[in-house]
Design goal:
The complex is a heterotrimer of chains A (373), B (282) and C (266). Chain A contains 13 helices and 16 strands. Chain A has 373 residues and is of the alpha+beta class. Chain A is globular, with a radius of gyration of 22 Å. Chain B has 282 residues and is of the alpha/beta class. Helices cover 21% and strands 31% of the residues of chain B. Classes of the chains: A alpha+beta (373), B alpha/beta (282), C alpha/beta (266). Chains A and B meet through strand 6, strand 7, strand 13, strand 14 and strand 15 of A and strand 6 of B.
């Protein structure tokens, strides 16, 4: 992106709302950033809504505050508590329904979500990388998840380049950001006077052509590129970029697991905010009249008691084994499943952990002793 | 119904209880038939695979199939009343409706292991997946060598299908070894651990395959003992149990290392899981 | 849990009140349309708040609200147990002793003397205790008050002949499923959600405020780690004790957490 090889347009700052209007004109419901309860969240935009401006997201382990952006930019907030996971993998949804007639016979029927064409504005490179991992899980060849697919197919993604990563960000080390390179329909890089805009899909080009933009100048394209490089260089946290499968699988009885278990609340917040976590529980909600029942799924977590529940025993009764399951799956066994790590460097598990457990710190502690051996 | 393994993500198919047998105070067997006659006729499975059974308004539970693939009576499930769904299933009577989807997972490598002596090791109540193997072999006796059935239970009264064990013991080239950690009056078999029985088992380790099911500790001890006897690691198989809710490799509960038990298991070769089994928590 | 209830047709149900504020009974009344649907499927024989009065009759399911706090309570709970096939304790009072169990940590006679003009008219036990301290309880529904959806789920399970699902997860799980922002992280407030049982639907965080633990302890509640974090957020040891000593002060996990903090403070 912004390589100079693809046609890039330039959208002056004052015309940002014309992008939203163009999307709406093409029949998309738009979601964009909004401030809610002290954080940036994605909410449905009305035609008259103005995107929040001049905000940065100050993040640290167990800490998130919105602060002033001295440059008064639209997208200087690095990220909010959720990527776009809830839009594709709903926290709670019905999957099928069963009716029981007077004779007791059961009749089953699939329930599929009704999903409008939806555009999301402000998607980060890490969010796109996470979406690709969720696609790999939910849309595997021959095993498409109908509910996920239905939501996914309706999405139009307006990505933005991250110019101001938070202290918790480490997407540069995982190779997933801060500049979006793939998986978006339209991508924006915010400069002082406006946005360098590129499209990477037919849908994206259709919206872009409706905007009738002037081409971006080579100086503007250079500035966008440099901004991405500077943002990558500014990241202070990192994960080793190599495959950690062997390094971590050889540390399954490391004393560090006990130390982190003493701090971990097993609240599951890390798994809920992680944009690649896919675990979910299934269950029934019968109607009170006894005639029907809805079978649905809800987000679950490897930190919950029921996750490892078997009749007679629990595979993971303690916090140590739950934390280890989460980290080993995310950074080690994910490679076996989907050919890469399950971490895309967004840092949400660090910021939104109520006690500030830092995944990157745990990994260095776990692999440091390996180096000593 | 006989879609590619793991594709039957739901909703379930309507099915009916054909018969119900109480096997022990807490164990019962349900024979089920799919209501759609064509689907029932087309239904195929391999021993070691499982179905998701649905109880109206309550939910689904994975249950391994214990009948023989050639049975036309119905699809047999032996169930222990232990949790919400299974206790509810225990109340069902012939004619009652359920939901069924499946079969799921990989079964025992019975075709590949043809020609070998087969050693079956089961502990606790983990017998159903292995019983399907017994049925399978007895119906195709000429394809296999000796059959050794080793069954351990905690209490003597936990042993179900006692008459069947007697019957199996009377079959040609078939040895039945049973142990109960706690015996009872008139208990005809060994009192002690199931692993005590290995020394008594008669088979040729050089051309034997073992299939195990039951508590993981028992399977580990059994595997060590069989490896010592000279059974090659590549012919040691075990059926793993994990929390399975979706059965199609999506919900994430049944992960065992990088694999999904519902899809890549429940039957594994020893080499696939031995490294993880020594660590509690996987 | 008795699975054969389903064969009964219309189970007979009683809702009993012990020492409590009636809030959990109100959770029944607030079910609205669901209450009407419920009335179609069960026979409500005793429910003082709603009308029917027949406390002594035999029932299939007795819901018991409130704690055992007076000498009469002691006798009445035995009577109810004997006349109920299944007994379900509902709410913080019935499951942990409730807010009135704060007196368990102190000499309540002084309080009585300070508050009441005629302390001799007050006949209460020294301790307020949960129902399970006195009789066998088949299922506990935590919360102050319990929520409508919890009640519906329990009744539905019983009507289907299966045990109710016991949700032991943390409030955080419900909070995140509602797409709410963690108030502890974004506002630095001392939220009890990470150690508190789910069931309320993350009501307080949905209003931008911190959970105060009214559903009692969740499973694997790491109170040490949470207390340490409360300290980092600026709470004094006394503040932290108060977080754990509130609606469910006598729930063993919260009691132990408070005790540990008191000892550290000394």
């Amino acid at each position: 992106m912004f390589s100079g090889h693809e046609p890039a347009g330039f959208l002056p700052l004052a015309l940002l709302d014309t992008l939203v209007a163009a999307l709406m004109a093409q029949g998309y419901e738009c979601q964009g950033p909004a401030v809610e309860n002290g954080a940036i969240v994605m909410r449905e935009l009305a035609e008259t809504d103005v995107l929040p401006r001049g905000l940065q997201a100050e993040q640290a382990p167990g800490h998130y505050r919105l602060t002033q952006d001295p440059l008064n930019r639209y997208f200087a907030w690095a990220n909010g508590p959720q990527a776009i996971k809830p839009q594709v993998f709903a926290p709670k949804e019905s999957m099928w329904r069963v009716e029981r007639d007077e004779a007791g016979a059961l009749q089953f029927a699939a329930v599929l979500p009704e999903m409008p064409k939806q555009a999301i504005i402000g998607v980060r490179a890490c969010d796109l990388a996470a979406l690709a991992l969720q696609d790999a899980h939910f849309l595997r060849d021959g095993r498409r998840d109908a509910h996920y697919a239905q939501r996914r197919e309706q999405l139009f993604l307006v990505a933005v380049q991250c110019a101001v990563p938070a202290s918790t960000c480490f997407c540069a080390s995982t190779g997933d950001g801060p500049t979006p390179t793939t998986g978006y329909d339209i991508s924006l890089a915010e400069l002082a006077e406006g946005f360098v805009v590129v499209a990477s899909s037919g849908k994206g080009e259709a919206v872009l052509s409706a905007l009738n933009l002037l081409p971006a100048t080579s100086q503007q394209i250079d500035a966008a590129q440099q901004q991405g490089q500077a943002a990558a260089a500014s990241q202070t946290r990192s994960l080793p970029s190599r495959n950690l499968l062997e390094a971590l699988m050889s540390q399954l009885e490391h004393p560090r697991w006990d130390e982190v278990a003493a701090r971990c609340l097993a609240c599951g917040n890390c798994t809920a905010v992680c944009p690649t976590c896919f675990c979910h529980a299934e269950g029934d909600e019968p109607s009170l009249d006894g005639h029907s029942s809805e079978h649905g799924r809800i987000w679950d977590s490897c930190f919950s008691e029921s996750h490892g529940h078997l009749h007679g025993f629990n595979v993971r009764p303690d916090i140590r084994s739950r934390y280890r399951q989460w980290l080993i799956h995310k950074l080690a066994t994910w490679h076996e499943q989907y050919g890469r790590s399950g971490c895309i460097g967004c840092g949400r598990c660090i910021a939104w952990c109520p006690v500030g457990i830092d995944l990157t710190e745990e990994v260095s502690a776990l692999t440091a002793s390996e180096a000593q051996l | 119904m006989t879609v590619e393994n793991g594709m039957d993500a739901g909703p379930p198919h309507a099915a009916t209880v054909v018969s119900r047998t109480q096997e022990s105070p807490t164990i019962f067997t349900l024979q089920l038939r799919l209501d759609d006659a064509a689907a029932q006729a087309a239904y195929r499975f391999a021993p070691g695979q499982f179905n998701m059974l649905y109880l109206f308004g309550v939910g689904e539970v994975p249950i391994s199939i214990m009948s023989d693939p050639g049975d036309r009576i119905g699809i047999g499930h032996t169930i222990r009343a232990a949790g919400r769904v299974t206790r509810g299933l225990a109340e069902l009577q012939p004619g009652d409706p359920v939901g069924l989807r499946g079969p799921f997972g990989r079964g025992w490598p019975l075709q590949e292991m043809g020609g070998n002596d087969i050693v079956l090791v089961t502990g606790g109540l983990g017998c159903a997946p292995v019983v399907s193997v017994v049925h399978y072999i007895l119906k195709r006796r000429d394809r296999f060598g000796k059959l050794v059935i080793i069954q351990g239970v905690k209490h003597a009264e936990d042993l179900i299908w006692r008459e069947q064990y007697d019957h199996w013991a009377s079959m040609p080239d078939t040895q039945v070894l049973v142990a109960a950690t706690e015996g009872a009056a008139l208990w005809p078999w060994h009192v002690g651990r199931v692993t005590d029985l290995f020394a008594l088992a008669r088979f040729n380790p050089k051309r034997a395959a073992a299939m195990m099911c039951g508590p993981e500790g028992m399977m580990r001890t059994a595997a060590e003992s069989l490896l010592q006897r000279g059974v090659p690691e590549s012919r040691l198989f075990l059926s793993m149990e994990r929390n399975m809710q979706c059965a199609v490799g999506r919900c994430g509960h049944c992960q065992l290392g990088g694999s999904f038990v519902c899809r890549d298991g429940p039957v594994y070769s020893w080499g696939q899981v031995k490294d993880l089994l020594v660590h509690r928590g996987f | 849990m008795n699975a054969s209830l389903v064969k009964l047709g219309k189970p007979r149900v009683a809702v009993h009140k012990f020492s409590s504020c009636d809030g959990c009974q109100l959770a029944f009344l607030n079910l609205g349309e669901d209450l009407l649907a419920l009335a179609e499927r069960v026979e409500l024989v005793h429910f003082a708040e709603a009308g029917p009065l027949d406390p002594d009759t035999e029932v299939d399911i007795a819901f018991v609200e409130g704690s055992v706090s007076t000498p009469q309570d002691l006798e009445r709970i035995q009577h109810i147990r004997q006349h109920s096939r299944m007994l379900i304790a509902i709410g913080a009072c019935a499951t942990s002793g409730g807010i009135q169990a704060l007196r368990n940590n102190t000499d309540g006679t002084d309080w009585v003397a300070q508050i009441y003009a005629h302390p001799e008219a007050i006949a209460s036990l020294a301790h307020s205790t949960p129902i399970s301290s006195h009789v066998k309880v088949d299922f506990e529904l935590w919360g102050c008050p319990v929520s409508g959806p919890q009640i519906v789920a329990v009744v539905n399970s019983l009507l289907l002949g299966v045990a109710p699902h016991d949700n032991v997860d943390k409030v955080c799980t419900e909070c995140k499923r509602r797409n709410l922002t963690c108030v502890m992280v974004s506002h630095g407030v001392a939220c009890m959600g990470p150690v508190t049982r789910a069931g309320c639907g993350a009501l307080c965080p949905s209003l931008g405020r911190d959970c105060y633990g009214c559903y009692g302890p969740a499973e694997n509640a790491n109170t040490d780690a949470l207390a340490a974090q409360f300290g980092h957020l600026g709470l004094t040891p006394q503040d932290i004790v108060r977080r754990f000593q509130s609606i469910n002060s006598q729930a063993p996990v919260f009691l132990a957490a408070a005790e540990k903090m008191r000892q550290r403070d000394e």
